[in-house]
Amino acid sequence: MNSKHLRKGSRQPSPISKGKIRLYSNRFCPYCQRIVLVLDAKKIPYEVVNINLVSKPDWMYDKTPSGKIPALELDNGEVLYESLIIADYLDEKYHAHHLHSKDPLQKAKDQLLLRQFTKVINALLKTVSAGRVDNDEADIITEGLTTFEKELANRPGPYFSGNKPGMLDYMIWPWCERSDVLKMFGKEYILRKDKYKRLMEWRKMMMEDEAVKKSCCDVNTHIKYLQSYRAGIPDYDLLS
Amino acid sequence: MNSKHLRKGSRQPSPISKGKIRLYSNRFCPYCQRIVLVLDAKKIPYEVVNINLVSKPDWMYDKTPSGKIPALELDNGEVLYESLIIADYLDEKYHAHHLHSKDPLQKAKDQLLLRQFTKVINALLKTVSAGRVDNDEADIITEGLTTFEKELANRPGPYFSGNKPGMLDYMIWPWCERSDVLKMFGKEYILRKDKYKRLMEWRKMMMEDEAVKKSCCDVNTHIKYLQSYRAGIPDYDLLS
């Protein structure tokens, strides 16, 4: 998972062997982490090839449009991309440790929450790239977190999926893991611990999950990476 | 399906009876038509309440955020929205006439195509609201249609899903039904019939499908509606 990131000019890894799957990933990409979490939670064996996002190897462009990652390569040569599509594929293909609810209504409601969380992600991205929180973004983040806080109150818990994390938990986790980086901008007040008590409890419980533990980074590592990213020289190999 | 569109001040329909489902819809909304197609293809009984989009009844805002439609109301009072989420829900809940492929890989590949089609939809929307086709939009439309043309060549056909339409066929249909309105802007050359032979053949076959026939409008009706829409006074009740 912490292998060096391949860049333009790097040799293409050999074809994958029969029965294996390979994830083209990046150690600090939250969308890639979604797939790492799903693979680890479902205990699916896989190999990782890390890709440098500012200097992608040419052969990556032959695998997905614009060399997009995360990308999942199968042993028949097919390559899937788009994190949510890969996650759904893995959950449907590998039946052990089902992550989506088997109740179609519950699954649909989780999907709606995930759509709302996508808006929170976009607001966070704007915040990180601007280095400040504008009012519009603050509203979207607050509204999103309030919805999720209420939702936890209405579910048996402690996870959104019940007594162990499910698809919704894992799909939102990568950004929740990084939420403390807001203190880098002096904006930690957005995530007021008194206002989002249940979410804070959920976050603590998620940290105890085996799959989460495997890919989780501490806040200082995230801040160090983010500083290199904002300086225009992202240090993807920080943990290699 | 052609009932008058309820507007601000209209009385709220009575609660739905046990075992029934209700679609809040609009006769000319292509996203709503997606759900109508799924319901009809799966032969699920449903009732329709049409909503005026420029003057929504107040009670619609209690059902979905911003009174969004299409919205599917269940007999337990729950309301789902977002066309793709509703479509997936219906396909998982009602097993007869399965629309998604049962092969997870095929389903994932169809989902990727659908993502690409969403870009075509957005380019078409820009075109319709601007009344002209800019180069960027023309490129996106051409690239999308070329992908779909190639895809049809690589599949057994005649439909994307084989010998009868499946989820991908129905999810892209509403915009394909409307494609001839481009002639309203003198831009029909974008859909060159010689370049997209298989897509044209597919379009003809879709017109023969029972579910498509039920909601399909002729091009003149679409143009008439679009003219009223562009004039700022959308005539949703054109067919009532």
Automatic annotation (TrEMBL), chains A, B:
<dbReference type="InterPro" id="IPR036249">
    <property type="entry name" value="Thioredoxin-like_sf"/>
</dbReference>
<feature type="domain" description="GST C-terminal">
    <location>
        <begin position="103"/>
        <end position="226"/>
    </location>
</feature>
<dbReference type="InterPro" id="IPR036282">
    <property type="entry name" value="Glutathione-S-Trfase_C_sf"/>
</dbReference>
<dbReference type="GO" id="GO:0005737">
    <property type="term" value="C:cytoplasm"/>
</dbReference>
<dbReference type="Pfam" id="PF13417">
    <property type="entry name" value="GST_N_3"/>
</dbReference>
<dbReference type="GO" id="GO:0045174">
    <property type="term" value="F:glutathione dehydrogenase (ascorbate) activity"/>
</dbReference>
<dbReference type="InterPro" id="IPR010987">
    <property type="entry name" value="Glutathione-S-Trfase_C-like"/>
</dbReference>
<dbReference type="GO" id="GO:0004364">
    <property type="term" value="F:glutathione transferase activity"/>
</dbReference>
<comment type="similarity">
    <text>Belongs to the GST superfamily. Omega family.</text>
</comment>
<keyword id="KW-0560">Oxidoreductase</keyword>
<feature type="domain" description="GST N-terminal">
    <location>
        <begin position="19"/>
        <end position="98"/>
    </location>
</feature>
<dbReference type="InterPro" id="IPR040079">
    <property type="entry name" value="Glutathione_S-Trfase"/>
</dbReference>
<dbReference type="GO" id="GO:0006749">
    <property type="term" value="P:glutathione metabolic process"/>
</dbReference>
<dbReference type="InterPro" id="IPR050983">
    <property type="entry name" value="GST_Omega/HSP26"/>
</dbReference>
<dbReference type="Pfam" id="PF13410">
    <property type="entry name" value="GST_C_2"/>
</dbReference>
<protein>
    <recommendedName>
        <fullName>Glutathione S-transferase omega-1</fullName>
    </recommendedName>
</protein>
<dbReference type="InterPro" id="IPR004045">
    <property type="entry name" value="Glutathione_S-Trfase_N"/>
</dbReference>
<dbReference type="InterPro" id="IPR005442">
    <property type="entry name" value="GST_omega"/>
</dbReference>
